[in-house]
Amino acid sequence: MQFFADNSVGESLSQSTNAIKQISDTLFSSNSLFVLILSLIAASILSKILSVVLRKLSRVVGRTADASTNLETVNRLRRTETWIILSIAVVRLLCFVFALYFWWVVTHPDGGKPTALIGASAIIIVIIGGVFSPLLRDLAFGSGMMAEHWYGVGDLIKVEPFMDMQGVVERITLRSTRIRGLNGEVIWVTNQNIAAVHIAQKGVLTVAIEIFVTDPKKADVLIEKTNALLPTGPSLVASRLDIISSDEHDDSIWHVTAVAETAPGRQWLIEKTAIDLMKEIDEKSSKPILITSPFARYADNDTERQFARAVKNAKKTKRTPRRLKSDK
Predict the structure, then answer these.
(1) Three-state SS string across the chain, please?
(2) Phi and psi for 256 in degrees, rounded to 5?
(3) CA geometry: angle 59, 64, 68, nearest 5 deg
(4) I need a surface site. Which of 54, 89, 173, 196 has the fewest CB within 10 A?
(5) Are 208 and 223 in contact (CB under 8 A)?
(6) Which residues in the chain show pLDDT less than 70?
(7) Residues 6+ positions from 253 with CB-CB distance below 8 Å
(8) Which pairs from 182-190 meet CB under 8 Å and 24+ separation?
(9) pLDDT tens-digit readout, 155-194
(10) Neighbours of 241 (CB within 10 A)
(11) pTM greater than 0.85
């Protein structure tokens, strides 16, 4: 029994040694390495050419989206732009995989020895699993986010758990996202670190100012004077204050609502600056018209409709079924 055991161990060691030698001859021979390097260089050049073409195509789609005035068309084109940019990463991966396949076919025209093929596959799996596991996690998270359409190129977003990280999405890959901050900084974040995303609808925030005045006509003048002092621009006040309603509550009390649009993170220009300017202008006038201090609130139409629906449903009373005569 001891003799057979020794023979078995010897055969196992011999087979292992032969397998390692075959793998070494297969992977580390000068001819194999030369073909592998050439294959990777060719794949890199091809992927760069295709990436340049796809980026130019994405710019054309982006300019078309910017020129369109139809919101549905803009959203569709921006999704197309996002998928084109995502395809750049896919093309690079496919070029790399094809390079490896080409290298194996050229260096092993007969299909290669099974032990060498198995050993090489085992080494590749170990390398991918150990070295590239963080990359694979990023790819998994990125694929899920893109499949669920979390956000797209051109969206104004705020990233959790980094609440100070917000800006315009410039580039998306399956591994990472590049954001242009309001201060001009370029921010890269790996997809696996994105816990949640806040997306500004239509790219701006709508803020309303509520005022109670004694004269609605003078309220128009007050709003116009305030607008003249507000800084405007795509990253500041995108749309100045505009009166949307003026309701009479009493003979001498009017409720006036004015809305403005700002870039995300700049809402303080309306919530604080505009209100301070309004109060200062009113105090310096010969006849002040403000009854109370103005106050600001968010004024998104879709949000208000959803809240109104929720409140309406919450106020519904539960009907009690009528009792049948037999139940009395």
Answers:
(1) CHHHHHHHHHHHHHHHHHHHHHHHHHHCCHHHHHHHHHHHHHHHHHHHHHHHHHHHHHHHHHHHHHHCCCHHHHHHHHHHHHHHHHHHHHHHHHHHHHHHHHHHHHHCCCCCCHHHHHHHHHHHHHHHHHHCHHHHHHHHHHHHHHHCCCCCCCCEEEEECCCCCEEEEEEECCCEEEEEECCCCEEEEEHHHCCEEEECHHHCEEEEEEEEECCHHHHHHHHHHHHHHCCECCCCEEEEEEEEEEEEEECCEEEEEEEEEECCCCCHHHHHHHHHHHHHHHHHCCCCCECCCCEEEECCHHHHHHHHHHHHHHCCCCCCCCCCHHHC
(2) -115, 135
(3) 150
(4) 196
(5) no
(6) 1-29, 71, 108-139, 201-203, 300-328
(7) 212, 213, 214, 291
(8) 182/235, 182/263, 182/264, 182/265, 182/266, 189/159, 189/162, 189/165, 190/138
(9) 888 888 887 788 888 887 777 888 888 777 888 888 888 8
(10) 22
(11) no
Matching residue, tokens 């010897």:
10
**Residue recorded with tokens 């590049």:** 178
